Amino acid sequence: MRERLFTTQEVGSLQRPYWLQRFGQQLDRKTLHSAVQWGNRLSVDEVNELVNSSGNGLLQKQSPLITAADKERVKEIASIYAVRMQENAGLDRIFNGEQMRTEMYSFMANYINGMSRAGVLNAFDANYFIKGVIDGGISILENGIDFFVKEFDFTKSQTKREIKTCLTGPYTMVDWSYLEHYIYGYEAANVCRRLTRRKGREEAVMDFATEVLNPVIRALENSGAKFIQIDEPAAATDEGESGLFVQALNASFKGISKAVGRAVHLCYSDYSKLFPDLVECKADSYLIEFTNHSSPDKFRESDVDQNTFKALSLFKKYGMKAKIGIGVVDIHSDMIESPEKIRDEIMVASKILDDPSLVEVNPDCGLRTRKPEIAYAKLKNMVKGAELARIEYGE
Amino acid sequence: MKQLLSETKNFKGETRFLGPMLTGLVSRSSHTAKVHRLFRDGKATESDFEAAITSDSKKLILEQGNFAFISGGQLDWLDIIRPIAQYFGGFGWRNNNAFKNKMNDDSSYLERANPPKIMTLGPVTRWFRTNTFYRKPHVSGRIECIGDELAEIMPETGENSVIFLPAPYSLARLVENIFYDNLGDLAKDYARAIAKSGPKLREKGYSCILLLEPFVGFELSGNSFRLPDWFSDSVSLAKENDIKLGINFPKAEAEEVVPIIEDSKVDFIGVDLLYSTSFRVNTSKDLLLGTVDGGSIRVETSANIRHIVSRCLESAEFSGRYYIGPNDRLYDVPFDFALRKIEALSRLAGEF
């Protein structure tokens, strides 16, 4: 049977529900509303565990009555909310919206031997992240493997849809960290950072691929995972390292069965810098931010900016047959993209790639930047847009 | 080593250390980051956020006792470009429809006739090879200085203060231009607007403008590149008589960038000694020697800094007058590390 065209999926984390952010504090009307209204709307049976008439719901508890098990359970229930939201929106491939994690970088760093926290840095406007320092040889901690497997098992137990697990990639983890351990020896011997940094980065990126990511992916495969997404937002920031980036991805997937889907997520970069090295990459799909590349103030509802998908022509030019998940939803705007606009974008991308079966559909990046109401509306329209595009192709 | 610093050569055989200075925006403390998030979420007031910024700035200034020029770190700038777009004419604005929709019958005639405008912003864009982002403003008209806002938003930090601004070429490459037919005209108009802002900045104690030119180092250096003919002219147009004008080239090869700017009216050129493979520069200008790593948390010792400076001074032919500073902004190291790096520079300066 022919695979359905235009698989839809979220691509990064979803915002933690308001009730989860307020967990442990006095239960107020807004918290109650966010739990009950969304629970009912998404048909989440576990809403009664959060709030009930007996007064012993998880959100009705306050410190010191909250146990470690309660803290775990609220994250599981938040995961169920995220799964139901994606199911109700109609997505084909889903995950738990990373509700059991804090964010993609420092959360991952917590499970790595040889990494510690350096301090807070600004990422964008009022968004900050904790930058880590690699101050020893890196490897995955045993409880890191346990966490990712447990997270996968839990998601699997909650849905019949195809599921995926997202992991932050080796290049990004290293690029966003201070590399004290890996550059110290080189810098002691030479003044010029341009030369010494590169050597240290190469070692760190490959160690991350082989000692951190590969063991996690192997454990997930053993647990039944069928789709792994490696998030690499830092890729393509240095064209001189595209070969290293590809080498690290391949090392991360080494020894994994071909039956396991291998996706790479790229965003906010000049993707042309990855070519021609990307041709050697053994991933079978790339989920790419595109919509933000067209300016929201120039890009009106019905227009498709022809330049938006220009990077796709490189995949075509180099004869790559990987699937491309095109970002059709802007995660930095509350504007809800119309299904018709999304349909048109899918058609444009299909035309550039000259093969609609290579096109998948996703938001630019994780919708955690948007409130649930907006994220849900955007995802629903994205699914409708894919449906409209299928009609155009006679499905 | 100290002797080396004072006995360095120049065209006339003289030398003069002018002092340290910062080279760009500085990161905010973890406390300020927390207050900023609370402010965004409506759980803290604007004055809470301003107080946190002021407190951080004071700490930074306190450490700059021996500095040639003082900076509060421009901590209230969300990025290096947005305030330019906000306060210079030529950048795109549009009606704030969200506000318009919220207006009701009680809204005044003036409010309804002139709803507040918001900047038309382009895509969220990565700031070179970092995990920080900025939003590209649109250039939709002629860039000009239309008031004193730039001076007004800058705090009074003393008589010898420095303001950091994007260099004309970098600005031209980092915005979305839908007005100018060529980027040279954009860069030149922007430089003229800087010069026009000069007198008011001077009145407020700003005796130095440091133009930040990251595009050359991050995007071009190391490859064979050719900059447009207008590069140097556009920088010269930013010169205002009473204010020192410098330009800093982070992550660029010193030997490559110095000749580019030699004919301009800048008073000094910032070279990144940490990312340069050769220090053989030849210029009649003063130099700003980037010797403290803005991308590393390792805090330099006086000996580290002296070692790099002396290696440069052994090879460079220049005016003999030099500043020292970080090779790049201290925005990519946490606040506490930035403070310690500033302290290291100040301590070294105190040894002269």
Report what the structure shows:
The complex is a heterodimer of chains A (395) and B (352). Chain A is of the alpha/beta class and 395 residues long. Chain A has a single domain, classed as TIM Barrel, CATH 3.20.20.210. Helix content of chain A is 41%, strand content 16%. Chain A has 13 helices and ten strands. In chain A, helix 6 crosses helix 9. About 2% of the residues of chain A have low confidence. By secondary structure, chain B is α/β, with parallel strands linked by helices. Helices cover 38% and strands 21% of the residues of chain B. Chain B contains 14 helices and 13 strands. In chain B, strands 1-13-12-11-10-9-7 form a seven-stranded parallel sheet. The longest helix of chain B is centred in the middle third of the chain and has 21 residues. Chain B starts with a helix and ends with a helix. The N terminus of chain B is likely disordered. Chains A and B meet through strand 2, strand 3 and helix 9 of A and helix 2, strand 5, strand 6, helix 13 and helix 14 of B.
